[in-house]
Amino acid sequence: MKKAFTLLELLLTVSIFIIVAVFLFHIIDINKKTSNTLINKIDSLIGTYAMQELIAKDLLYASRVEIKNDRDANSQLFITTKNYLSSPFDEKVSYILSKQNNLYRIQSQNRPSKEKFSELKPQNIHLIYSDVKTFAVAPIQNSDSSYAFYIEFADGTEEFFSTKKY
User: Fold this and answer.
1) Residue 147 within any structural domain of the chain
2) Is residue 107 within a helix (H) or strand (E), and if so which, with residue range?
3) Residue 135 domain-assigned?
4) Binning pLDDT at 50, 70 and 90, where does residue 18 land?
5) Which of 51, 99, 107, 146 could form a disulfide linkage to 90, CB 3.0–4.6 angstroms apart?
6) pLDDT tens digit sequence for 107-127
7) Helix residue ranges per DSSP H, the chain
């Protein structure tokens, strides 16, 4: 009659347990990476949607929209709007790509320029995106209230969207 396990049986059991544990940890690691990728993608989409919604609200309440190009052929969007994010007295909103490739939304009483960033109140400057290579805005043909936006990032990804003032 056998009362204990042999050394070979114990080694075999421990080996099988270790192999199963390694596979489980590998599966958990893959699941964690997939989950983090999905969370980052969702955060990116939420950020993109929030930025698009902010621009759409600025255009919705706009009484005047002006688009100019800077020396690097990037668009500068100037809006006179009643969409007050910072202050009800600051009705001039500008979307400007800085020399450091950051896209800013600036709300002020007067139209700002890139050179006068330091004169603005910090609460009126909102970083929309960083590492932006190209920012382009154009009115959609046959419409005086619809605009197309193109943003190219330094990593090569691109965003296209359009807004309509109702």
Assistant:
1) yes
2) strand 103-108
3) yes
4) very high
5) 107
6) 887 776 555 656 666 667 888
7) 7-60
Q: For residue 39, give Cα distances in angstroms to 25, 35, 105.
A: 21, 6, 26
Three-state DSSP class for residue 38: helix
Q: Which residues contact 61 (CB under 8 A, 6 or more apart)?
A: 81, 82, 83
List the structure tokens of 40: 């980052």
Asked if residue 50 belongs to a domain, the reply is: yes
Q: Could you tell me if residue 25 is inside a domain?
A: no
Express as a percent the part of the chain with pLDDT over 90.
Answer: 18
Say which amino acid occupies 24: L
pLDDT value of residue 117: 58
Instruction: pLDDT band for 2, please (50, 70, 90 cuts).
Output: low
Q: How far is CA 23 from CA 5, 10, 59, in A?
A: 26, 20, 54
| pTM higher than 0.70 | no
Integer CA distances (angstroms), 46 to 80, 133, 136, in order: 26, 21, 21
